[in-house]
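2 proteins. here.
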Amino acid sequence: MTLHRCLRLCGTSLSHRQQHRGLSGAAMRLVQFCRPGEEGRVRVGVEQADGLGVVDLQAFDPSLPSTMRELLALEVKGQEAARRALSSGQCVLKRSDIRLLAPVLDPEKVVCVGMNYRDHCLEQNAPIPKEPIIFSKFSSAITGPYDDITLPSESQEVDWEVELAFVIGRRGKNIKEEDALSYVAGFTVANDVSARDWQMKRNGKQWLLGKTFDTFCPLGPALVTTDAVQDPHSLGIRCLVNGETVQSSSTQQMIFKTEALVSWVSRFVTLTPGDVFLTGTPPGVGVFRSPPVFLKRGDVVECQIDRIGSIINKVV
């Protein structure tokens, strides 16, 4: 990806940013990464504005945790420590010298929302839901922003779904909608990879198994704090397969917005730092094409969301 394209997708220009209520007090792009030869050792960093350098938080302050979930559990203190590290300009690693991992690897919950784009409902002649349709993936499905998607031998109908994801930043239950954004740490890009045969025909048509094969949740490239996103519900969202645009819409099409989803789900379960929400996909998925199109080995899937970034995963 060229630097110009990265800047357009990631929205690094500060002049167009608008502060709005959220957990963070300043715009940041938080990442998880490892160094070559240290694949088992996860570290947390903050991207510099040019996207070419990452500040290693634990190198800056050894008392800081080494995973995103632990950092988020510190709430405001963790955010302040990350801002200090970024401002210092110290302990900078070249982006080319590290491997980016998913921003969160082991969330307590991966909450997914079905049928949450009006235009996606229209493409399948389905009614607009009156309440959020909630399902889940296991956290073991999560993989990195540039890691491979593995086709399981059990499925012949693996499909793509670009989605805006957000991550919870503090513990909460029965959260009011007007307070919901203060529980959100930031946003990231997800691909809700789906085995349609298992989702729609097998397992009693329960969605879980078809959604949760290993590597079926690419996530990244960064956790973009709420302050860095002018309006999460007015973002271009796209998916490309082998360079061809297959999904192109806007998060304006979301039926239930971030605030509504946080409030709704918190009625049933306690939300904890690191919980990941996938907010639904726009039209253009393979299963509803005529004839249907599914992923095959060698395909390259790119999911893009304006101001958040892009993830690119090869199918193997």
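next one coming up
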Amino acid sequence: AGLCKTRPTDIVFIIDSSRSVRPSEFEQVKVFLAKVIEGLDVGPNATRVGVVNYASRVKNEVSLKTHRTKAGLIKAVTKIEPLSTGTMTGLAIQFALNVAFSEGEGARVKSPDISKVAIIVTDGRPQDNVKDVAQRARDAGIEIFAIGVGRVDMSTLKQMASEPLDDHVDYVESYSVIEKLTKKFQEAFCACSNSATDVVFLIDGSKSVRPENFELVKKWINQIVDKLDVSDSKAHVGLVQYSSSVRQEFPLGRFNNKKDLKDAVKKMAYMERGTMTGQALRYLTDSSFTPGQGARPGVTKVGIVFTDGRSQDYIGDAAKKAKEHGFKMYAVGVGNAVEDELKEIASEPTGEHYFYTADFKTMNQIAKKLQINICQG
């Protein structure tokens, strides 16, 4: 994650230091904060970090504008003392919305290029209402992650967190294991803005996929697109569908903003025929990744192949050729996909480049792993 340039983000940690959080446990929360901060690209034009400490009252420990360096920030975090009173979580969210995320405190003007993120860590049941105030914060464009510890009330965590809840609600049994979330949070703010990338999806539209699953595949593509830094100079995305023949849906660089790109993915019509994976891989090398089709010279090339069954043609040569061209190849299989074929398509180390799941409904887990790998590529 060290390579990871985070996209410009205003992050505010909202940490519960009510009576139920023992001093030694509060120390572990601070270690967790320090480790997440360690993986961020801290700076006035990159990621700014604030910390709000709360119990029965709310204390603004670190403003978004206070520290311009990682070292200063981590030092400030180590000095935070627990308040050791009640649990007014709603009040803390209200404070974040009105004060911590205000321009006066160093938040940046709302814009699509800057993410606003609140990370709440709590181990109790709030003594006030969180549902409405969390909704207001989310409506104001703040993405909320809720981390619950020990005997926390799970239903209030879900009231606070942003959708999809799977990505935004975490639970750990005790403060002693909160550190295991470090990696997730370092990666969560990892947009792949560190480099220009040409990404082409090669999608199996054979009839075994079935129409309702084909819709899930399109959602899955857009889930990955969501995490890419799509723009003229950063990530470009192309889409190719194959079945008994190969059809380019759109070339690299045609759509340079997420909305148009995702709309185009949604419009992809299902071919519903055979499975000529070898032919599709050849198309990737001979056409998709060529300058004539919008590929940029000297830019990292990533191919993401999705299939749900055995190829009807030979894939060996085409798979080898794609890798010899230096393309970073990911192979994703669902259902009757053949693991040996996936491994043959995937780049080395194959363990990080091929994924299999029995069911279309669990593809979103693969999307998360892929996002992280593409980011760190």
